[in-house]
Structures are given as C-alpha cells and as structure tokens.
Amino acid sequence: MPTTLNEQQETIRKFRSIANFPTVIGAIDCTHIRVKKVNADGGQLYINRKGFSSINVQVVCDADLKIMDIVTRWRGSVHDSRIFRECRLKQRFEAGAFSGILLGDSGYPCTPYLFTPLLNPTTPQEERYNRSHIRTRNTVERCFGLWKQRFRCLLRGMFGDIETAKKTIVACAVLHNMAIDMREDVFSGERDSIEQYSSEPIVQRYIAPSIRGNIRRRQFIETHFQDNTHL
C-alpha cells in the first residue's frame, strides 16, 4: 500500500482519472483459486459456494492493476467480509494510516473507509455515485483477469499441498507487479480475452452497511456527486 502522502495522492489521482471518483486509494475484492480436494479433517471448509475446493484470496489493487495487498490464508467457504474484517489492512485503516478510501462490492459492509454501491439508488446523485463507483472498482476485476492470464495456474488451479499453493499465489502476485513495472504484456492476442476471467461466478450476499458507514457515504455523495461531471 502507498505509505507516504505523495504516494497516496498519486494513487488517488490515478483512480480519479477513471470516472472522477475522488479519494480512492484501492479497489478490493476476493477471487477463488482452485486447489485439489483436501481429505484431511476440515477439508470440507475449503469447498466454496460453487462446490469446488479453493483458497479465497483477498486483493487490493491500484489504478495500474498492480496488487498492493494480498491475503491468501483463508479457505474457500469463508465470506469476503470476514476476510477483510480480520485482516491487518482493516486495522491500519481504522488507525488512520491512509488518507483515502477503498471501493468494494456489496459483499462488504459499507464503512467510513470502505464504500460499497447503493442497493437501490433513487436520486440522480445516487445514480452518478453508483456509475462512478462501478467503473472505478472494476479495476480489481481487470486486475484478476490480467493476473490469471499471465499465470494460468491461477485459472487451472493448484494441485500441490495447500501451503505451497499459498506461497505460489503470493509469488505470482509479486511477478505480476514486476511485469507491470517492466511494461510486459500478456501473450499476443490474449488481452482481448481478459474480461472473460475477470468476473467471479460466485455471487456474494448483500451485506448491510454500518450506521457510521451509511452516514459517511451519504455525506460523500452530497459533497462530490451533486453535478453531472461523473459520466
């Protein structure tokens, strides 16, 4: 994650250039990486909602699709919101370590530092907020698509032991960031197919916002989405 004020401001600037959504420092989501069936005690906890064994991997990316934070220790049956609730990054946000906010989908609770879409927008301001939110948060879906295209083992699945799979996932994240820094593209002709891998087939249930998060989001919409510059 960006640490200095200058780094955070540059990250915020790049996110705002996507759809004019201010103060975003990261887009967050989880993706399921298939693993071989675990026969040991507790192996059933690796089975996700789609019925296959997986590790549920939490990622925060920036506007350049680089992975800034990754959590690989949770089994496939664990909900995205719990992974974030128990991660160190949440503690850092609550401690005021960052000047911006995260964008997540409705699988997360809305908090003062993690904004989610409105379930039923009723005003032009709310609709502008949702459109801008969706376009900006889509960076993490594109990140997953590019990451999995570069490293097909993330698409096919990991068939070694679980601890090796976790380390391999993190190694792929590091190499993905290095490839972006070096401006390495995926293989010719494959970039067009990235989007087909970017959307998770597992639908997250809607999580109600917290009271503080709801108030903060309402104030944010009233402050930043009154005009029609968010297209």
Explain how this protein is built:
Helices cover 40% and strands 14% of the residues. With 231 residues, the chain is α/β, with parallel strands linked by helices. The model is unreliable at 188-203 (pLDDT under 50). The protein has a 5-stranded mixed sheet. The protein has 7 helices and 5 strands; from the N terminus they run H-E-E-E-H-H-E-E-H-H-H-H. The chain is globular and about 55 Å long. The longest helix is centred in the middle third of the chain and has 27 residues, at 124-150. This is DDE Tnp4 domain-containing protein. Residues 28-177 form the DDE Tnp4 domain. Pfam families: DDE_Tnp_4. Belongs to the HARBI1 family. Keywords: Hydrolase, Metal-binding, Nuclease, Nucleus.
Short description:
40% of the residues lie in helices and 14% in strands. By secondary structure, the protein is of the alpha/beta class.
The share of residues in extended strands comes to 5-15%
SS summary, helix count: 7
Give unreliable regions as ranges: 188-203
Q: What best-fitting shape do the alpha-carbon axes yield?
A: globular
Give the class from helix and strand content and strand pairing. Answer: alpha/beta
Q: Determine the fraction of residues in helical runs and give it as a percent range.
A: 40-55%
Widest sheet: strand ordering: 3-2-1-4-5
Termini Cα gap: 28 Å
Q: Please state the CA-atom Rg, rounded to the nearest Å.
A: 18 Å
Protein name: DDE Tnp4 domain-containing protein
Domain DDE Tnp4: 28-177
Organism: Parnassius mnemosyne
Main location: nucleus
